[in-house]
Known about the structure:
Elements: H1 2-7, E1 9-17, E2 24-33, H2 37-82
Antiparallel strand pairs: 1-2
Amino acid sequence: MLSRLNNKRLTSTISKNCPSCSSSVVITRQPQRFYSLNSYNDKEKAEEQIYVQKKEREALEAMKKKLEELQKEVEALKKSKKE
């Protein structure tokens, strides 16, 4: 039953009761979607993977900058030893 609800688009009805005649009038119908727990967990896993990839990319960029600085220092030391 729950799996059928996950795939169907249901509508929720907002209605208002008339004070004088107590009949209800439909104001709007809004689409609703029921998500399964699996899709929610998949979404969380995807967000976590994106976060981890972002942090790994930042760490690699920091390592590249440090490597460039160290290479410049090595070149400067080589030049000073030659002189």
